[in-house]
Design brief:
single chain; Rossmann fold; globular; transferase; glycosyltransferase; uracil phosphoribosyltransferase activity
């Protein structure tokens, strides 16, 4: 799957891939959080600003219906309201970093958890834990995970949601950073899943690290990096 370079003022959409407009301000935020010498408090603060933009964009992809309200001056505003129930699902542990922004935007949102780790011998993703809303099949799901690299964890998490009855087109994958390889793997397997990301890096290197990358985001965000 090809990914077109995004111009600074463009909100790039390639099928179900939605990339935030690559504005000067967004690139400045990325400059802070990608810096290997960044203080943890700076990385947390500025990455949360990007996460807020990502979640707002993801919410814009959900279904709405017309709704009229009367304004304080007695006029009518032709507005919109969500027509579906939603929930967030974070992929432990890095995905937990995105929960605060989702709860800030929608304080009452329900949030499920999935823990998937790569087996040291087989190198395949293994499901260790999941706890999801009982009615998740009736909801649109915002799947939260900052990194989409090889795609193995994302594929396993999405398959779990499908097994629980969630419709593929009802899943919006909110992602801080990805690469063309990850996008291709995701949409080869699940073409109807919507992906929202803030940047598409050049490639994966021989060790499956994103280039130019950001390092282990979960460790850096939670302060467990060495």
């Amino acid at each position: 799957m090809s990914v077109t370079t995004v111009s600074p003022a463009e909100h790039h959409v390639d099928g179900n891939v939605h990339v935030l407009p690559q504005t000067n301000h967004l690139r400045a935020l990325h400059t802070i959080i990608r810096d290997r010498t960044a203080r943890r408090e700076d990385l947390v603060f500025h990455s949360r600003r990007i996460m807020r933009l990502l979640i707002e964009t993801g919410l814009d992809l959900l279904p709405y219906e017309k709704a009229e309200v009367e304004t304080p001056v007695g006029s009518t505003y032709d507005g919109l309201r969500l027509t579906s129930k939603i929930c967030g699902v974070s992929i432990i542990r890095a995905g937990d970093s995105m929960e605060t922004e989702l709860r800030t935007i929608i304080p009452s949102v329900r949030i499920g958890k999935i823990l998937i780790q790569r087996d040291k011998v087989t190198k395949l993703p293994q499901l260790y834990y999941s706890h999801l809303p009982a009615d998740i099949a009736e909801r649109h799901v915002l799947l939260l995970d900052p990194m989409l690299a090889t795609g193995g964890t994302a594929l396993a998490a999405i398959q779990l949601l499908l097994d629980k009855g969630v419709r593929e087109e009802h899943i919006v994958f909110i992602n801080l950073l990805t690469v063309p390889e990850g996008i291709a793997v995701l949409h080869d397997r699940f073409p109807n899943v919507k992906l929202v990301t803030s940047a598409v890096d050049r490639q994966l290197n021989e060790n499956a690290y994103m280039i130019p990358g950001i390092g282990d985001f979960g460790d850096r965000f939670f302060g467990t990096d060495r």
